[in-house]
Amino acid sequence: MEKLEGKKVLLTGGSRGIGPIIAEYLTDNGSIVAIAARSNSNLQEIATHLNKKGHSIAVFAVDLKEASQREQLVTDVLNKFGNIDILINNAGLETEGAYTELSWTSIQENIEVNLIAPMALTHRILPIMLNNKVGHIVNIASIAAKSGVPYAAVYSGTKAGLAEWSRALRLELTGTGVNFSTIFPGYIREVGMFAKFGMVTPWIVGSCSPYQAANAVVNAIKKSRKEIIVNSRPLRYSFMINDLSPRLGDWLMQISGLADFQRRKVGK
User: Fold this and answer.
1) What would the pLDDT profile of 22-34 be if each residue is shown by its tens digit?
2) DSSP string covering 8-30
3) DSSP 175
4) Which long-range contacts (CB under 8 A, 24 or more apart) does 206-211 make?
5) Sign of torsion, CA 126 127 128 134?
6) Which of 127, 142, 185, 226 is found 20 to 30 A from 214 (Cα to Cα)?
7) Catalytic residue among 25, 151, 155, 187
8) Is 155 a catalytic residue?
9) 76-115 pLDDT, tens per residue?
């Protein structure tokens, strides 16, 4: 059982979606948290809320698609905290739409924030953890990483890359004291990118609350869980079917109503 009390955490994507809830859960468990995001005003609002609860939190405005700002973020957090025990790569962009209709700039930004930024931050912070012989890196993927979603091809691809990169490092660094966890949330209700559409997912697909996702992050750290799927419907078996038979997996995607749901979501 890994304790969170006193742990120094860097959480990206901390100003919106599940980020503020993860930050609150961590501080409730005694962690010392730095939240990073593009919007300084949103970060300040979160800090004010948590300060009122008696929690101290540091905020850092940063554009994670910029390499120089990623470097500066790590430097600033280390100067503030002296160490980073836990890195939570939560920031993400969801560029949806027909692939050929997306601008190449938006595709590149999606890849930069969803995949390159976590790799870059980990590359900078991991040597510190290895030197300390302790640390935990949590990557927030998506069920789209398990089964690619139409009209979210770039998002699906970046999250799948994030998940398999995380798994490879987990195997590579077994026994070093550094743990890796990957969280696979379903469609998240109430907050974040999906909630803005105001649509209900097909029954068979399900969804999850932001609180379930945040709780999964805390449990992954405390219990050193390697992977956690967070969803109201048991999707693990459908993912297994997809791996065993892509043809059958595609058919299930169609009959579940998910493909049509995605099409309507982007106005197709």
Assistant:
1) 999 999 999 999 9
2) EEEEES-SSTTHHHHHHHHHHTT
3) T
4) 206/231, 206/232, 206/233, 206/235, 207/231, 207/232, 208/232, 210/17, 210/18, 210/21, 211/21
5) positive
6) 127
7) 155
8) yes
9) 999 999 999 999 999 999 888 999 999 999 999 999 999 9
Q: Is the pTM of this model over 0.85?
A: yes
Most confident segment among 38-42, 169-173, 252-256: 169-173
pLDDT tier at 1, thresholds 50, 70, 90? low
**Which tokens belong to 234?**
């048991």
| Closest of 110, 89, 70 to residue 180, by C-alpha | 89
Type of residue numbered 42: N
Amino acid letter, residue 219:
N
CA-based nearest residue to 209, from 236, 226, 232:
232
H or E element that contains 134? none
